[in-house]
Amino acid sequence: MKVLIVGSGGREHAIAWKIAQSDKVDKIYCAPGNAGIAEYAECIDIKAMELEKLADFAQENEIDLTVIGMDDPLVAGVVDVFEARGLRVFGPRKNAAIIEGSKAFSKDLMKKYNIPTAAYETFDSADAAIAYLETADFPIVLKADGLALGKGVLICNTLEEAKEGVKTIMLDKQFGAAGDKLVIEEFMTGREVSVLAFCDGTRIKPMTSAQDHKRAKDGDQGLNTGGMGTFSPSPFYTKEVDEFCEKYIYQATMDAMKKEGRDFVGVLFCGLMLTPKGPKVLEYNARFGDPETQVVLPRMKNDIVEVFEACIDGKLNEIDLQFEDNAAVCVVLASDGYPEHYEKGFPIEGLETFKGKDGYYVFHAGTKAVDGKVVTNGGRVLGVTALGTDLKDARKNAYAATEWISFANKYKRNDIGKAIDEA
Ligand code: AMP
Ligand code: GLY
User: Fold this and answer.
1) CB 156 less than 6 A from any atom of ligand 1
2) In this predicted model, what pLDDT tens digit does every residue of 281-291 receive, in sequence order?
3) Architecture of domain 327-422
4) What is the pTM of this model?
């Protein structure tokens, strides 16, 4: 089989690494890819949002399966473009990817089908939003309706902050058209868990759980980022929590989407908050998480290509999803200054240390090869993942492996997996 992957981050590197292990696959391409992905795949110079060009490439090169890693092309309808040409593609169609593309849509869906989530209101005018905030309790959460690179969520402690937030999102349009509508939501407390699940339109099979660390600095301080590190499994995601989520969240979401005529095929990412009143949905994404994928896939036993195909063919019931009884931790090595201003183009040393070391992985995110040398090329540069017999062992291994790598403005959080000590 020939497989094409669309994306260029650490998530896509982990997906490429996992696909490369499938006996079914002879050749992998990645658009646009990065310096690490190039080890498994031929990287091609087409951007993820060049939907027609991607489909042209798949047609011309007789690609058997395309896997979409990123949210933007999914929300823009890349799956519809491929299907219209009779090409096999893994991911939700546009009418299902809206579950990530519009927070107003996903909140209305959860309300209509009684899926547990925070109470909310939706606004399309700043005046109405501010009038509502004047009588609200704080803290409160403001969410731009559309895609905003994970940055469109503001937690506001005071009315002043919230008014400023409404201005940023709705009037200054910091996130562009994503801020045409605003969701204002009840603030929830608890542990956060990410659960990614394979879906075939009817059935849903969750993978093992993970936890992300979204803030830039230790102690969950600083700005929100794409994610600074992850661990898997989450010790807080107990059997009891899983049973509740299977019944009231995962299958309920699949059924709701089906009833709406929006059958969901692909990976549904459920961002959950384990509140004192039980698990509630924080958000849905229509794709694998980044950097959740970097801790989940190294623990997965199945041939991922078989799972992708079962989802597309509506045969997920034939798959017995299995994960190793171990743990994984991923620590992101970023460029100092991320998610704001940072320099790039620095040579990266030590990548070869990972070669041949079982249970240690270095997944590239913002890297590129210049004259045969790998240099930094983004905010999140690398994700260092290590396995361990348990979470503490995995964390020790991952932090040790972060020392094998050096580059000029290397920055990492030092407390990834701190919550493990509280379990
Ligand atoms: P989202 O992009 O919706 O996952 O939001 C980003 C982050 O904001 C989440 O990972 C949470 O840490 C936080 N967040 C979002 N919604 C809420 C909420 N209703 N209550 C508390 N924290 C929230
Ligand atoms: N790690 C969060 C996300 O992928 O959206």
Assistant:
1) no
2) 999 999 999 99
3) Alpha-Beta Complex (3.90)
4) 0.97
